[in-house]
Amino acid sequence: MERYSNPLKALLTASQREIERLKEQLTELREILEAIQQGELDALINMSQNHEQIFILMRAEEPYRLLVEQMSQGAVTLNLSGTILYCNQYFATILNLPLESLISSSVYQFVAPEDQPALRSALVQGSQEYCKTELVLTSPREGKPIPFHLEFKPLKIDHLQVICLIATDLTEQKEAENKLKATLQEREILLKELHHRVKNNLQIISSLLKLQAENIKDEKLAEMFYESQNRVRAMALIHQKLYQSKSLSQIDISVYIQSLVADLIRSLNSNTRRISVEVKIEEVLLNMDTAIPCGLIINELFYNSIKYAFPGNRQGVIRIELTKDGQSDELSLTISDNGIGLPENLDYQNTETLGLQLVGMLTRQLDGSLELQRGEGTTFNLHFRELPYRERI
To answer: What is the pTM of this model?
Structure first.
């Protein structure tokens, strides 16, 4: 028995020493964990292959620690699976959680299930290169969703691959954006109402001109009233298209011209059945300062073609085309007819007729140029660019 007692005693002694060593390590680990939880030490926590937690102590230098702790952003260190290894107090404060409860917890707990694939994708990309995204994080304690701008960047510390996360609270920014959107929506409603009222007022003026013309026995004088009515209607149509469109500063000139021509044809229905109209307009957005004179020029030249180009029962075609040069942004408006043409002795730039005088004035208002081509009928070519916005006081 004695020959077995010495080895057995030695084994027991070795086991006791191992137990004491493990107790000392356990006591040390408890002290370290307590220090980490109390913020006295920084630590990185990594999962080993057998799923044990490995604590790697990182005693931060004082300047670095002050920088991180005084940041107005959340600073978080994550392992590749999304476990929080470290975070500053600001991040904990935003989520209204104790700092110690965040260490070794998963960042996925703060993200809604439908957003977790986006977070997973960001972590994968962030482990290799810088990336950023916006996600809503929710504190389990309050359940209040908080919008964040998240920036991910890979980092290697003592052969340990981690991800640095900078989280910026977007709550104030989103609230400001929502207030701005509400203000813009209110102004949009007011502008729509303004355009609507201007259109209604112009329609009232148009109706008054029509009523006045119907009570005038002098045909020439009555014709002047009808022409003025068409001009007012052309301006009213601009405001109608503006309050009906998505943009309150620009209108689709192609839609406007189509409607303008249709209105003119309806108002002169008895005179236009034998005249066909071809309209070819590119989709171009113009501001009101450009669209109104452009529409009035079309109104005058189109009306003149109907009135003078096809006397008697003569049939014909009126063409309206608008194109835009993609390089120079120059607009080309062509209004032509195959009627009898203008008199050879007529100088359209120096005429007593109000319609052509208006065309000249409106062309100068557009800073454009107007050319007349005589031949088989009459062709007017107007070249201009969209006018810059003018400040209103």
So the answer is: 0.53
